[in-house]
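Hi V.,

You were right to ask for the full record rather than a summary. Here it is.
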Amino acid sequence: MKLRTLIISDIHGCRRELDALLERMAYDPVSDRLILLGDLVDKGPDSMKTVERAMQLCRDHGAIVIQGNHDERLAALVRGDDPTVASKFLEHGGPATMASYAGSEYDPHDLDAFRRLMESRYAHHLDFLAGLPLYEEDEDHIFVHAGLNPAYADWREQPRRDFLYIKEPFYGYPTRTTKTVVFGHTRATDLHGSPDIWFAADKIGIDGGCAYGRQLNGLEIRRGSGYRAWTIQRMMGDNLVQ
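Predicted structure:
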């Protein structure tokens, strides 16, 4: 049985901060369970390397990665047929992802070329992102990217979109579960005016807004010892794309 559960969310291409936070938390895959709550891509500088790292953590160490709305959107951009996805991708940090994957071939105006590049070189990334689960749970917690809709007596029956996108209807009202919900998606600054982890009676928000120049948070859950918060500030020298 693992001694600790470590949870990180909304990395958004901040690969260096992810590795620095894992080091600060002294992550040990033998004794720790690692859960990433989605949004690996967009906004930050290293989406491609972040996805690679997440895949390696899953493959080699049994880490669990939950799907975020940005992860779903990248797969849908390349493989879906919704014409509105492209505008949302470009508006919400997608150009940084294009630059990360395409490098010197990057052309922010040529989405078709980017789609061809992703399918020809990074189909395994798309398979990974598209196949991620919507939640994980243990005896005392539910881990999800965005939250649970309290309108549903059985949260598992809520629409798929709620797992990925819900905000105020979730964080502004009590849940309908006895378990504590650990989530990202909504930045902690929007919850309590600080990028530090937000602890409420029935939920814990951990998105520190790293891609917006703030910090990457890590939540440690140790059996019988409660919670501990960890933080890495956004490193300087990156081109921030908001």
